[in-house]
Amino acid sequence: MTHVHVLSYDETTGVARREYDAAMRRAGRIWNIVSIQSQLPEVMRDSMKIYHSIMFGPSPLTRTQREMLAVVTSQANDCHY
Questions:
Q1: What SS3 string covers the chain?
Q2: Are 37 and 44 in contact (CB under 8 A)?
Q3: At CB < 8 A and 24+ separation, what contacts does 21-29 make?
Q4: Fewest C-beta atoms under 10 Å: which of 13, 60, 70, 77?
Q5: What is the pTM of this model?
Q6: Per residue in 38-49, is it b (16+ CB within 10 Å) or e — as a string?
Q7: Considering only CA atoms, which of 1, 27, 24 is closest in space to residue 12?
Q8: How far apart are CA 40 and CA 59, in angstroms?
């Protein structure tokens, strides 16, 4: 199985540290979906921008409907959400 080295909080600086700090403010922890991108901090930052646009930006869907779609998609993909 392939192994990806995920940077711990103490190993991060710059963009990665800012994204980890933002994750801690949002959720009180750093979820795997964020930390798996730690080797490419700019990708992590841009991924979070896309997430925020999808979940919080203008949409005909309510916030609850968006969360419901995320949960159903995660379940269909056998992912923990």
A1: CCCCCCCCHHHCCHHHHHHHHHHHHHHCCCCHHHHCCCCCHHHHHHHHHHHHHHHHCCCCCCHHHHHHHHHHHHHHCCCCC
A2: yes
A3: 22/48
A4: 60
A5: 0.78
A6: beebeebeebbe
A7: 24
A8: 29
